[in-house]
Structure to design on (780 residues):
């Protein structure tokens, strides 16, 4: 995996490509690689949809190997939603296939002439770039059905829907799953719009005839992988709760904590919560012949994704994630699982971020365009996005734009990106991460841990009160590093509690690359990534004032705890002091 | 405390209709001032082993609990039980989490409630793995619900429930399936002990 594929979409005679040896960014993968490339090759003041921006697609360090859970794909660019650096990652098959094709990254540069649309086919024989006008404005499911007719059901696809082609700021990039459905998405930050601006509709990856990547020390690698898998399978979260119910298992407890944003962040509890809980939806799935326990890529042993069938027992969409059930459910006052599943399908089909879409629809509800709880109205609104009507384009540009256009004060965004499913007034620690993350409001930016496992950044004594700021810092450092391995972030739950499982991950990396990394090296990598990202954002015009939550989180009490966000600006400004 | 008793004899899969009720919460009789630990073991019949190995997340009145041996219960309280949860916020919510400080503003704290021994009712909610492990047993033993909740349940899902249940017994009298709502409406007690008996128990 030592090649970089650069595709220049601007050439007059049509797109060209060149392969180069990965020397400058050697040893990097996933988020580390996308960040390093964007930070060094894209002007921070470049317009995100201009010829100067680049779209970097990178598998993780262990992708394409037999390492369990190594199927995350990182996609980086300057974000049209936040105006800062962006790494958005996704599961699905593409990371594994791209790594087997030996590419550390694909970089889309320049932009095709307005109106031209291309597909890129990559297999063991090389790279083919073709015009693809036949796919113009095709939604993702229809697009992939056509790909299947031509290329069969074994290839992996990276694609955009109509939202990406219209360059909407909340558009996603879809990645096909094991069943070749476009259900996995690099959802955040409008990465789909950047792909659309390049004029690329579809990338088809075919690893036929290729083998898994081999480790430098295969025996040690296999032993570490076995230990790693054992740790995941025996842990209560990764071995039990997630496979049984998926991420939506969180709905009930976040609601109980009074932190489930409801009706556009006006309440912390949703009265209809038990109808949309992970427990209830898993039950519906089982009764309708769907499967609540399912992996999103080969090599997944947690299997937290699932399938959702309609009332007639036909596949409708993937099992909606917690974020989707919150965004389109509680946040819009909708308690019907079938409506939420339909909204999930529409988001995937048009290529939209479910978090920003749910937040934007809720803002529209508060503005009076439709009522909270109006499921049919919400479906129609997302369909407007797919059609590209003027209102649809506003909604598809995300919650921040929607709130501005409709004159709603309560815009739940940081750096222009919608706040996810945990109200920071009730759960203040996550608010620190929302405010200070380089990515805009992002619950996954501070997901993993360093303290207690890596023994760096200080050991956290459960009996003492440590600072939320310190913990958020540690979490963001470790997450940036894990995002670079290509590992699913859900491994965090097992390595949180089981040091031997974390050690197995380090051992895998060392055995694969012939290294002798320690926990300190992992933390140093995380800091390096965050430093590059902070530096880019600063040059793009961000200041400390951008590391704040919207003012109403400080002034408007959230029931039932009547909580306000109370972390001081000084504390927020100290997150990145190391 | 007075309540009516409603026994539903049904096929196994019908229990899924009642699982949402366990998530919404049901009432358990207890005494004011008991610790959460004693409430769970003595009044809910949950073993110490199960609590320490499976019940990783506990809320009292929406506040995450770290110390079940010192937090006391009182009238009108709501206790919720969950297994270990994913996500950093899931980790924060766990009892004794190293990340508890990130939700410290809502954490439960001892408040010196007097151990009066006065009879009280507490609402208990069970979620995810706890629901899977213990839900059927709670339904078998019987859960106390407000009468209106049961009427609402039958009005909403009556067709499905009638199709799958074999016998309905209200206070020892067999009643027709389609007359259950009317029968309940005519009862004066506010609470109903709902018991579910599935096929293999007969």
């Amino acid at each position: 995996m030592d090649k970089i594929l650069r595709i220049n979409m601007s050439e007059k005679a049509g797109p060209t490509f060149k392969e180069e040896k990965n020397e400058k960014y050697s040893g990097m993968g996933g988020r580390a690689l996308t960040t390093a490339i964007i930070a060094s090759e894209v002007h921070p003041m470049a317009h995100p949809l201009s010829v100067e921006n680049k779209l970097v697609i990178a598998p993780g360090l262990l992708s394409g190997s037999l390492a369990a859970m190594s199927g995350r794909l990182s996609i980086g660019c300057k974000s049209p939603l936040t105006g800062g650096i962006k790494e958005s990652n996704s599961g699905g098959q593409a990371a594994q296939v791209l790594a087997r094709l030996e590419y550390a990254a694909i970089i889309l540069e320049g932009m095709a002439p307005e109106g031209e649309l291309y597909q890129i086919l990559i297999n063991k024989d090389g790279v083919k770039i073709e015009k693809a006008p036949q796919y113009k404005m095709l939604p993702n499911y229809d697009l992939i059905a056509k790909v299947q007719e031509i290329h069969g059901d074994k290839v992996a696809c990276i694609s955009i829907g109509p939202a990406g082609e219209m360059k909407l700021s909340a558009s996603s990039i879809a990645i096909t799953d094991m069943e070749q459905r476009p259900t996995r998405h690099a959802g955040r930050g409008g990465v789909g719009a950047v792909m659309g601006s390049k004029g690329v509709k579809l990338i088809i990856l075919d690893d036929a005839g290729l083998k898994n990547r081999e480790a430098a020390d295969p025996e040690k690698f296999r032993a570490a992988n076995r230990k790693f898998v054992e740790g995941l399978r025996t842990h209560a979260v990764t071995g039990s709760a997630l496979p049984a119910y998926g991420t939506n298992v969180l709905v009930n407890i976040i609601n109980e904590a009074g932190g489930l944003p409801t009706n556009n962040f006006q309440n912390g509890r949703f009265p209809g919560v038990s109808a949309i809980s992970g427990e209830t939806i898993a039950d519906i799935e089982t009764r309708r012949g769907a499967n609540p326990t399912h992996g999103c890529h080969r090599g997944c042993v947690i299997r937290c994704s699932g399938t959702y069938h309609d009332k007639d027992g036909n596949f409708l969409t993937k099992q909606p994630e917690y974020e989707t059930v919150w965004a389109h459910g509680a946040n819009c006052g909708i308690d019907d699982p079938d409506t939420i599943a339909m909204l999930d399908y529409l988001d995937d089909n048009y290529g939209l971020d479910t978090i920003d879409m749910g937040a934007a629809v809720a803002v529209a509800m508060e503005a009076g365009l439709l009522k909270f709880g109006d499921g049919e109205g919400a479906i129609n609104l997302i369909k407007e996005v797919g059609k590209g009507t003027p209102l649809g384009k506003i909604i598809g540009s995300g919650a921040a734009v929607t709130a501005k256009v409709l004159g709603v004060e309560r815009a739940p965004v940081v750096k222009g990106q919608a706040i996810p499913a945990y109200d920071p007034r009730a759960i203040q620690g996550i608010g620190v991460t929302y405010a200070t993350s380089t990515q805009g409001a992002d619950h996954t930016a501070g997901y993993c841990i360093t303290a207690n496992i890596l023994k760096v950044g200080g050991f956290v004594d459960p009996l003492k009160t440590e600072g939320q700021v310190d913990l958020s810092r540690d979490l963001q450092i470790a997450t940036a590093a894990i995002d670079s391995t290509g590992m699913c972030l859900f491994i965090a739950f097992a390595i949180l509690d089981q040091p031997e499982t974390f050690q197995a991950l380090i051992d895998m990396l060392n055995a694969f690359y012939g290294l002798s990394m320690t926990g300190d090296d992992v933390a140093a990598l995380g800091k390096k990534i965050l430093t590059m990202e902070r530096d880019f954002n600063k040059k793009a015009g961000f200041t400390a004032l951008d590391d704040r939550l919207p003012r109403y989180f400080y002034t408007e009490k959230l029931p039932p705890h009547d909580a306000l966000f109370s972390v001081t600006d000084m504390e927020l400004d100290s997150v990145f002091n190391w | 405390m007075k309540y009516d008793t409603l026994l539903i004899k049904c096929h196994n899969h019908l229990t899924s209709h009642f699982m949402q009720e366990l998530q919404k919460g049901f009432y358990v009789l207890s005494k004011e001032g008991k610790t959460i630990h004693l409430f769970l073991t003595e009044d809910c019949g949950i073993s110490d082993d199960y609590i320490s190995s499976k019940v990783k997340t506990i809320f009292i009145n929406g506040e995450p609990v770290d110390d079940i041996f010192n937090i006391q219960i009182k009238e009108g309280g709501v206790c919720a039980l969950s297994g270990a949860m994913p996500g950093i916020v899931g980790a924060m919510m766990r009892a004794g989490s190293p990340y508890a400080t990130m939700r410290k503003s809502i954490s439960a704290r001892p408040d010196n409630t007097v151990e009066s021994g006065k009879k009280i009712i507490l609402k208990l909610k069970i979620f995810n793995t706890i629901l899977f492990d213990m839900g059927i047993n709670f339904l078998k033993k019987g859960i106390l619900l407000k009468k209106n909740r049961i009427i609402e349940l039958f009005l909403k899902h009556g067709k499905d429930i009638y199709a799958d249940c074999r016998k309905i017994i209200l206070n020892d009298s067999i009643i027709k399936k389609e007359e259950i709502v009317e029968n309940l409406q005519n009862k004066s007690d506010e609470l109903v002990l709902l018991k579910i008996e599935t096929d293999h128990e007969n």
